[in-house]
Design goal:
Blueprint: H1 10-13, H2 19-32, E1 38-39, H3 51-61, H4 76-90, E2 99-102, H5 104-116, E3 122-127, H6 132-139, E4 143-148, H7 159-165, E5 170-176, H8 188-200, E6 204-208, H9 224-227, E7 235-240, E8 253-256, H10 259-272, H11 278-289, H12 293-314, E9 329-330, H13 350-361, E10 363-364, E11 366-367, E12 377-380, H14 385-398
Parallel strand pairs: 1-10, 3-4, 3-5, 5-6, 6-7
Antiparallel strand pairs: 2-8, 7-8, 9-12, 11-12
Helix pairs in contact: 3-11, 4-11, 5-6, 5-10, 12-14
Length: 400
């Protein structure tokens, strides 16, 4: 009798492919085939990793102490540097023992949910959301519960919306500021109100702070644990060097939190992947502890591009693009373009619209379906000024 059990795990088979990576891969494939594609898809800085960071990695490569296994939770010096950065930027005093160094921010997100979520636990997910969050929640056995805020709210959910979504099964709130995909930043007052609500109801908070240093117009992305210190025992912060330091390929992230949750995550990592590359850790130590001049120059470049892309998109009839205060994304509402004929095609969803844009204008964007409801597009402005301006001009010509 043949075994009729599924060949691939049902749990793993249910994972949706990363939409952002899928669109970026398609754009690169078309580019390799000779199409003049401009991609706004990937959230990846176009800058080189700063020289002093690369030099630290080069020195680490030839040092034999980095050629061996090291503690699964991270090098002691790396964990100390992260603890100092957490106090400096998030206002939370932690010890190195409360830090786990991970293979990029995605692993930190996965392990944070895995450490505290049980089957059936509900996680409130402000929407639009980064495409990986729901998948990580479901892998932990949790139930993602979307709480949607549109462009009219600058994509920021309210306490009232969270309370309306709360049930007896709500265990965790995901809090992301600045946001991927919208670039929206909660004010200190909004952050405090949400944090106090979480404390009142005994709800854990997982805060993704990977964009906290990429803010504009004098805005500060206040950490929710700084706004509400009482959350320190029920909050996990995830972060990394990928975005701020142009180190996406180095795969270095981390999670910070209360001792019991961090110990659980460290135990998981000891079986999952063991230690992060020692070379990447040495580079990240240099990033966090070294000079920040080049980082500020990158932030200023992103700020310039932010203004250019917002103005360019809002010049298109049918597009409403709020001005983001953080990260390096814009998230325009494009419902005004749907249901109209463009190049003989009538798109009715943002997925169809994104396909039309790629085929007719050689511009790659990510449709809103990857982040929640249809009717929106995500564009990253972490690309060169010349490519950005040309891409926007192509969109303006297509929708003229």
């Amino acid at each position: 009798m043949l075994n009729k059990l599924p060949r691939v795990s049902i749990r793993i088979g249910a994972i949706a492919e990363s939409a952002t990576l899928k669109v970026d891969a398609k754009a690169k494939s078309l580019l390799a085939a000779g199409r003049p594609v401009i991609s706004f898809a990937a959230g990846e800085p176009d800058f080189a990793t700063p020289k002093h960071i690369v030099e630290a990695a080069s020195a680490a490569v030839i040092d034999p102490k980095n050629h061996r296994y090291t503690p699964a939770a991270g090098l002691p010096e790396m964990r100390e540097a992260i603890a100092a950065k957490t106090l400096r930027d998030s206002g939370l005093a932690v010890t190195a023992a409360q830090v786990v160094v991970t293979n990029g921010g995605k692993q930190a997100v996965y392990q944070a949910f895995a450490a505290i979520v049980d089957p059936g636990d509900e996680v409130l997910v402000p929407t639009p959301y980064w495409t990986t969050y729901p998948e990580a929640i479901k892998l932990a056995g949790g139930v993602p519960v979307s709480v949607f805020a549109g462009a009219d709210q600058n994509y920021l959910v309210t306490v009232e919306q969270l309370e309306a979504a709360r049930t007896e099964n709500t265990k965790v709130l995901l809090f992301v500021s600045p946001s991927n995909p919208t670039g929206s930043v909660y004010s200190p007052e909004q952050t405090r109100a949400i944090g106090e609500w979480a404390v009142t109801h005994g709800i854990w908070v997982i805060a993704d702070e990977i964009y906290q240093n990429l803010v504009y117009d004098g805005v500060t992305a206040m950490s929710i644990v700084e706004a509400v210190p009482a959350l320190a025992d029920t909050a996990i912060l995830v972060n990394g060097v990928a975005k701020t330091y142009a180190m996406t390929g180095w795969r270095l992230g981390w999670m910070v939190g209360p001792a019991d949750a961090i110990k659980a995550a460290a135990n998981l990592q000891s079986h999952l992947s063991s230690n992060v590359s020692n070379i990447s850790q040495r580079a990240a130590i240099a990033a966090l502890n070294g000079p920040q001049d080049e980082i500020e120059n990158m932030r200023l470049a992103f700020d310039r591009r932010r203004k250019l892309i917002v103005a360019g998109l809002n010049a298109i009839d049918g597009v409403v693009c709020p001005t983001p205060e953080g990260a390096f994304y814009v998230y325009p509402d494009v419902t005004g373009l749907l249901g109209r004929v463009w190049c003989g095609v009538t798109p009715t969803t943002s997925l169809e619209l994104a396909d039309l844009i790629l085929e007719q204008a050689d511009v790659a964007v990510v449709p809103g379906e990857a982040f929640g409801p249809s009717g929106y597009l995500r564009l990253s402005y972490a690309l060169g000024d010349e490519a950005l301006l040309e891409g926007v001009k192509r969109l303006q010509r297509l929708f003229a």
